[in-house]
User: Which sequence fits this backbone?
């Protein structure tokens, strides 16, 4: 079996350095500033649709992704998402290489959950294998394969989630997470 090892043609995870582009606080009392971590935390907890996929919707049309909320994060961890169990060393390696073993499956699981109602996240906590099967069926139904245009779209959305999680956990915030703690654990 021939395997394409040309990494230039495969989608790559673009993981930002959480110390880059952190907005500084303006000393002016009239302007309320939001730190990078607060923005990222708000992104993760948002209830509104945050991105659109060109597939997955009714009749094969576009689909709005819902936020990767705490409920969906717990569900993703329950059905086998590896990234949420990374320690600081693994996050640093990810930032250096822009990939990790299991990124394909993690991106499918996270984005699948963002296409489904919150009830599916609850189901994942009760019967993880059933939701894993649903995610695999979704992947097959939409022909999401490594290196495909659709996987590139899924990986781009997943990259936004990963960047938000890394940035939100890189400083102590209102949830008590600080740099060096395991991402996704409190």
Assistant:
């Amino acid at each position: 079996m021939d395997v394409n090892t040309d990494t230039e043609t495969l989608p790559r995870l673009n993981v930002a350095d959480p110390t880059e582009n952190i907005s500084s606080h303006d000393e002016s009392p009239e302007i309320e500033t939001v730190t990078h971590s607060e923005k990222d935390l708000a992104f993760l907890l948002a209830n509104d649709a945050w991105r659109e996929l060109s597939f997955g919707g009714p009749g094969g049309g576009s689909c709005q992704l819902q936020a990767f909320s705490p409920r969906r994060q717990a569900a993703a961890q329950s059905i086998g998402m590896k990234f949420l169990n990374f320690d600081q060393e693994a996050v640093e390696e990810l930032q250096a290489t822009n990939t990790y073993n299991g990124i394909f499956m993690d991106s499918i699981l996270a984005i699948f959950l963002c296409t489904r109602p919150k009830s599916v996240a609850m189901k994942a906590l009760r019967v993880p294998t059933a939701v894993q099967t649903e995610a695999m069926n979704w992947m097959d139904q939409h022909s999401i394969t490594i290196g495909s245009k659709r996987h590139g779209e899924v990986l781009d959305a997943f990259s936004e989630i990963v960047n938000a999680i890394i940035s939100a956990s890189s400083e102590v915030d209102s949830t008590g997470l600080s740099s060096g703690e395991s991402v996704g654990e409190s």
Q: What stands out?
A: Residues 1-12, 17-36, 177-186 have pLDDT under 50 and may be disordered.
